[in-house]
């Protein structure tokens, strides 16, 4: 096992342990976009908001010509910068503010990705959230050492896309647990990481 201080969870998923009482993160699956000595940033994948993409487009004055995406849910990505959009997507082109996480996933925070999605010229797959989950330097490592999270590294692209884009939100936590070979109901408050 790697020492916690040398941990890099970029591109991995965090599963909140059953003891997690924080209402923002209880029973969540979070995709880690960056993790380095300065801290970590991720997007919660299974907390839909009560708004759709159509509603979001109306709020930011984008006219949607791609009717198929209008009913997509917008998700609560975490409690930091909840007024700002964070879009996980398949890496097709770079936008004004794109971070390449790995070969299969990128994160864009600029409005131009939403404009291209509205015109049906955006990436093949999108996951749109407001806000993100953030950890200061050493905070995530500390939480991992106290068994607040399980980490799972998903290298198979289909499983990665299922967890981020394809599955209904209420199936993401059970799938992440299956990928670890663990049943959420049988987890105790003490566990390690995979």
The portion of residues forming beta strands comes to 25-35%
Biggest β-sheet, characterized? 10 strands, mixed
Count of alpha/pi helices = 5
Whole-number total of structural domains? 1
Uncertain segments: 189-194
User: Strand-and-helix sequence, N→C?
Assistant: EEEEHEEEEHEHEHH
Q: Portion of residues in helices?
A: 10-25%
Rg estimate, integer Å: 16 Å
CATH superfamily: VC0467-like
Q: What characteristic shape results from the CA principal axes? A: globular
The level 1 CATH classification is Alpha Beta
- Looking at the structure, the CATH topology is VC0467-like
Structural class: alpha+beta
Query: For the terminal residues, how far apart are their CA atoms?
Result: 9 Å
CATH-scheme architecture: 3-Layer(aba) Sandwich
Total number of strands: 10
Mean pLDDT: 90
Short structural description:
This protein is α+β, with helices and mostly antiparallel strands.
Give the key terms.
194 residues, alpha+beta, VC0467-like, 5 helices, globular
Written description of the protein model:
With 194 residues, the chain is an alpha+beta fold. It has a single domain, classed as 3-Layer(aba) Sandwich (VC0467-like), CATH 3.40.1740.10. The protein has five helices and ten strands. β7 and β8 form a beta hairpin. It is globular, with a radius of gyration of 16 Å. The protein starts with 12 loop residues before the first strand and ends in a 14-residue tail after the last helix.
């Amino acid at each position: 096992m790697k020492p916690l201080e040398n941990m890099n969870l970029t591109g991995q998923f965090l599963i909140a342990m059953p003891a997690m009482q924080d209402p923002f993160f209880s029973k969540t699956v979070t995709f880690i976009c960056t993790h380095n000595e300065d801290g970590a940033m991720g997007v919660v994948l299974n907390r839909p908001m009560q708004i759709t993409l159509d509603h979001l487009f109306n709020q930011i004055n984008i006219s949607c010509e791609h009717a198929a995406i209008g009913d997509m849910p917008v998700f609560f990505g975490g409690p930091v910068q909840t007024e700002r959009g964070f879009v996980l997507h398949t890496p097709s082109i770079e936008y004004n503010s794109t971070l390449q996480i790995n070969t299969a996933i990128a994160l864009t925070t600029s409005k131009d990705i939403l404009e291209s999605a509205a015109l049906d010229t955006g990436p093949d797959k999108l996951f749109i959230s407001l806000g993100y989950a953030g950890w200061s330097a050493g905070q995530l490592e500390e939480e991992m050492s106290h068994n607040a999270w399980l980490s799972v590294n998903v290298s198979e692209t289909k499983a990665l896309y299922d967890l981020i884009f394809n599955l209904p939100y209420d199936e993401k936590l059970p799938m992440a647990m299956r990928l670890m070979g663990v049943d959420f109901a049988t987890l105790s408050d003490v566990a390690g990481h995979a």
